[in-house]
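**Polypeptide and fold**
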Amino acid sequence: MRPRKDRTKDAEKQDRDFVTALARGLELLRAFRREGEALGNGELAERTGLSRSTVSRLAYTLNKLEYLSYDPDTARYRLAPPVLSLGFSCLAGIPLRQLAKPFMQELADYTGMPVAMASRDRLSMVYLERCKGTNAVTLAIEVGAHIKLATTAVGRACIAAHDPDERARILALVEEHEGDNWPNVQPGIEAAIADYQQHGYCTSFTEWKRDVNAVAVPFVPKDGSPIIAFNCGGPSQTLTRDWIESDVAHRLVDLVRRVAAVAP
């Protein structure tokens, strides 16, 4: 994986209407990856590719605006509650969540595995909705969590559903991010794209995590909003490849068809 660089510089050169200060402030908020994570200026600079002096000013400003809280004893920042209001406003603006939930729960009840919907956030997928199954041993991934784009079924489904030009752009970003690991990642993505074109779904068999299998199907909204993918995943010893390919995948394809029929 290659070192993080400041992406705002290139954007500023290409678009004179681009507000670099705003972009850098948002990049700083993106640097917080785990619940309750506390970061100092040095860690924020490393994650964003920004200079420590720039990070210091941005963090100070975000603290004053109450988007970050600051602990003077540790000299570290955490995300503050006002950030959460932005996330909930976003979720409230996705009516597909409520339309799809009954269908998702039906499949979760049938398989005993969690069924989720997610959308791309750069090189990861963020969970927008999740329905729990009855199996006691399942993946504990909640709404708002991020998982990898390149090695998960849901990420591959999202990639596969884009038009060729946009798909090539995304894959170039993945290749840059993966660096020397790209030759290990590329075959799985290419196979998933072929599976989607032939069967309508994508899979990941112990590639994201060594004991997890999953299947996913993309949904392309008619209104031009971002592509969403639905997935079903669980322990590989229970959600076997054979069960996915002979049954679960086809049920997930049908789920997305039913969602498309009621979506605005």
